[in-house]
Amino acid sequence: MSDKLTLGVAARLSTYLRILIQSRKQGIESISSQEISEHANVNPTQVRRDLSSFGKFGKRGVGYRVEYLIAQIQDILHSGGTHNIALVGAGHLGSAIAASSIFQDHGFRIAALFDSDPARIGQTAGDLAVEDSATIAARCRDLGVILGVLAVPPASAQGAADQLVDGGVKILFNYTETLLSLPDDVTVHTINPAEEMLYALYFHLT
Amino acid sequence: MSDKLTLGVAARLSTYLRILIQSRKQGIESISSQEISEHANVNPTQVRRDLSSFGKFGKRGVGYRVEYLIAQIQDILHSGGTHNIALVGAGHLGSAIAASSIFQDHGFRIAALFDSDPARIGQTAGDLAVEDSATIAARCRDLGVILGVLAVPPASAQGAADQLVDGGVKILFNYTETLLSLPDDVTVHTINPAEEMLYALYFHLT
């Protein structure tokens, strides 16, 4: 596989990988395309086609070995390593993110947590000490961070994003609803459950 | 438009609607397909094609009127009304969700908030009093809730999901990583930023 994956394939493989990693965590050793399909909201034929195009992973009637399939998909997605994240915002949402094992399970390490509130700086959330937002750019450069997560109030989002980008961040996960203006080489992913609800509701109503 | 939208079109229209609603909130009255394209990570030709298939919304060089386009897309997505949500979990994440205006901006009203921790029941988060999780099913039936949000610890996810489904919930937003076993007529959307990060990173690295 030297060809670049299409957006759709890469998105589905990321979904399968998330399901497989969670299955492993729940002690599940093998999984069928039907089970992957149900958890992924993707039809089983598509699941089998996506996985078969990378070689023979599964056996009919036996299913896929979870551990092996994780390794294969991580190889295809180049996601086997560990990547540092900078998290900005140590309020309710930032604290929930810092305390969650979701990132860690997928090879993402929250390397630094920032807040601009003096009352929060120096406190801990998860295993992290809250650092001063004024140091975002310098710290991101030192840590080689390319992924930033914004869990700040909407009015602080653009400023925090600018500092992350100054520090070399190229991929931003924006939990605020603020529309950001950033350089063309920076990709912003907005995490907005309401958008996914609109979509889910459409298929429920029609 | 009596035909059902494809998954891709419905997903993109939900994204455009999220961007338009936020634009209106930021006081923006007109928007170009180029601007929608940048915020949506969708190419401008695709944006124009998606919007043109529902009639002439925009004028070349002038852009789309935000207010008008919101009304049109809401009509297409049947999303103009208000829909009740039940939120389970009043910890950091649940509190962040309850305090956010993201849902409300899109016509979703958090009608009830539940937790099983006696220390939290009766407390408030956002404008909501925390109710006892033991009442989930009955309250969901009373309120006519079809959308449930799980913001509970992973080990509580299946139990909370079962209670929501007992109460008539058909669409679940699962913020935990737990893989849920639920009836076929219930759709689960898993909100996992790590999955989207895997995907974003792939396109950054290749």
Set down the secondary structure blueprint:
Two copies of one chain form a homodimer.
Chain A (H helix, E strand, L loop, with lengths): L6 H19 L4 E2 L1 H8 L3 H9 L5 E2 L3 E3 H12 L5 E6 L3 H8 L2 H4 L2 E8 L8 E2 L2 E5 L3 H8 L3 E4 L6 H10 L4 E4 L12 E4 L2 H13 L1
Parallel strand pairs in A: 4-5, 4-8, 5-7, 8-9, 9-10
Antiparallel strand pairs in A: 1-3, 2-3, 6-7
Describe this structure as you would to a colleague:
Two copies of one chain form a homodimer. Chain A is an alpha/beta fold. The first copy, chain A, is 44% helix and 19% strand. In chain A, the strands form two sheets. The first copy, chain A, has a seven-stranded mixed sheet. In chain A, strands 1-3-2 form a three-stranded antiparallel sheet. In chain A, helix 7 crosses helix 8 (157-166). Chains A and B meet through helix 1, helix 5, helix 6, strand 10 and helix 9 of A and helix 1, helix 5, helix 6, strand 10 and helix 9 of B.
Short description:
The structure is a homodimer of 206-residue chains. Chain A is α/β, with parallel strands linked by helices and 206 residues long.
